[in-house]
Amino acid sequence: MNFIESFYPLLNDPKETVITMHQKPDGDAMGSALGLYHFLKLLGHDTTIISPTNWANFLNWMPGCEHVLNYESDKQYADNLIHKAKRIFCLDFNVLHRTKTMEEALLNATATKILIDHHEQPQTEVFDYGISQTEKSSTCEMIYDFICGSGNKKKIDLNIATCLYTGMMTDTGSFRFPNTTASVHLAIAYFKEIGLDHSAIHQNIYDTNTEDKLHLIGNSILNRLEVLYDYNTSLMVIPKSDLLKYYAKTGDTEGLVQYLLSIENIKFGALVIDRDEERKWSFRSKGNFDVNQFARKHFNGGGHKNAAGGNTKDSLEQTVKKFKAILLDYQSALK
Ligand code: 5GP
Ligand code: MN
C-alpha cells in the first residue's frame, strides 16, 4: 500500500470512481463517503457511492444520500459500476469481508483501490494506496485531512462540512470519547467559520426516534439487561422476538450498547442481537480493557480498543453461554 500522499496528484486526473464503506453504514461510514463524494464531484470525477447494504433512516437527510446505491437491491447495476471503475475508495473498514456480499466484486475489480480508515489491523495488501490511522476519531476526520493535505481546504463547502461533522459527532459519542482530540475541534472550528449548522445535525441524528424504537429501548433495559458485578460487566441479549414485536428497522438498535457503559463502575458492555443471518455482538469498554482484541480472539470481529464488534453463526443461547464462560478468564483484567 503506497502512502496516501502519492495519490494526491491523481486528483487532478478525473476518473470513474466508486466509493464504498462497511455494511450497515453508520454516521461515520455514510458521512465520510458523502463528504468525499461531494469533494470528488467538485474536482470533476464521475463518482458513485455504493453501500454494501441498506442503512438507518436517520441518515437519509444527509446531502447526497438520495444518490447512494444499495448493493443488495441493485446488484447488477452496482457490479457493472465496480467493474468499470478506475478507482475505488474503501472507507471506514479494515477488511474487505466487512462489505459482505460485495467482497467478491471488490476483489475482482481491476480499479486502483484506496483505503482511508481508522480500524485496527487493516488488510493493507489488497489496497494500492491508503492510510490507516487508528488514533483518529473518525474516517470523516481523515477525509478532512485528505482534502486539506491535497491542498484543497478552500474547496470545503457546507455539503462537505455537514457530512464530515456527522461522522465526527457519531464516532466520538458527541465529542465525549477519548478519541476527541484537538484536531477534531479545530476541523469543526473551520466548519463553523464557513457556516455549519451543528445543532440541526444533532437533531437530525438524535431527535428522530420512532415510538417503536423507544419501546424497544425501554423493553431492552427492563427485561434484557444483566449486570455481572463480579466482572464489572453488563450484558444485553436481544432475541429475534423483540425485534419483531417492536418492528425494529435498521438502526433501531444503534445506541443500545451505550446504556451498558452508563452503569456505575461498569468497564465492559456487551450487546448481542439475534439477526437473521448471524448473532451480532457489539462490545464497548472504558479504560484499558481492549475489546478489539476480545472481539478478534473470540467472536470473529474487531474494531477499536474501546469499541468493537463481532459475529457468529452460533445460536443466541450458545453464544451467550460462550461469552459467560470466556469472561471467567478476564476477571482480573476487569477488576
Ligand atoms: P458496532 O458495535 O457499532 O457495530 O461496531 C463498533 C466498532 O467495531 C465499529 O468501528 C465497527 O466498524 C467495528 N466492527 C463491528 N463489527 C465488526 C466485525 O464483525 N468485524 C470487524 N472487523 N469490525 C467490526
Ligand atoms: Mn468510523
Could you explain how this protein is built, in words?
By secondary structure, the protein is of the alpha/beta class. The chain has 2 domains: 2-206, inorganic pyrophosphatase (n-terminal core) (Alpha-Beta Complex); 211-334, Diaminopimelate Epimerase, Chain A, domain 1. The chain has helices at residues 27-42, 75-84, 103-108, 139-149, 158-171, 182-193, 198-206, 211-223, 240-245, 256-261, 291-298, 316-327, and strands spanning 2-3, 17-21, 47-51, 69-70, 87-91, 112-117, 129-132, 225-228, 233-238, 268-274, 279-285, 302-303, 307-312. Strands 1-7-6-5-2-3-4 form a 7-stranded parallel β-sheet, sandwiched between helices. It has a 6-stranded mixed β-sheet with strand order 8-9-10-11-13-12. Helix 1 runs parallel beside helix 4, helix 1 (27-42) runs antiparallel to helix 5 (158-171) and helix 4 (139-149) runs antiparallel to helix 5 (158-171). It is globular. The mean pLDDT is 97. It binds guanosine-5'-monophosphate and manganese (II) ion (MN).
Secondary structure: elements and pairs:
Blueprint: E1 2-3, E2 17-21, H1 27-42, E3 47-51, E4 69-70, H2 75-84, E5 87-91, H3 103-108, E6 112-117, E7 129-132, H4 139-149, H5 158-171, H6 182-193, H7 198-206, H8 211-223, E8 225-228, E9 233-238, H9 240-245, H10 256-261, E10 268-274, E11 279-285, H11 291-298, E12 302-303, E13 307-312, H12 316-327
Guanosine-5'-monophosphate binds next to strand 12 and strand 13.
